[in-house]
User: What shape does this take?
Amino acid sequence: MIEISNRVALRPDEVEISAIRAQGAGGQNVNKVSSAIHLRFDIAASSLPEVYKERLLALKDRRISKEGVVVIKAQQYRTQEANREDAIERLVELIRSVTYVEKKRVATKPTRASQRRRMDSKTRRSNVKSLRGRVDH
Assistant: This one.
């Protein structure tokens, strides 16, 4: 089971993992070994709670396709096992990111003293700049 939180976990069969060849430099070995991992996770068909599904589908993330499939490519490490762990960890982080709800900001007014300080500093700055003009003799 892939742990998301204390109450939420994914079954391994919900995540489709396939090995592919990594891109980039790597010498002769890069063309022979499939060490990169391509992870696909269908949000709608998963066992996640509906709230998580809605929030994931509402995310503006390039890893989530229009069909609601999360696609993660992991090729940072040299071994398939390390890349698999990395891909799963990135999926878990993505799902956990939608579990947090930001606090609503409470609008506040600036104090009268802070308003006065702001206006005084603007006046001082204005006076300094007015002294920079042309000098008439």
Summary: The first strand starts at residue 2 and ends at 3. Residues 2-97 form a domain with the Double Stranded RNA Binding Domain fold (CATH 3.30.160.20).
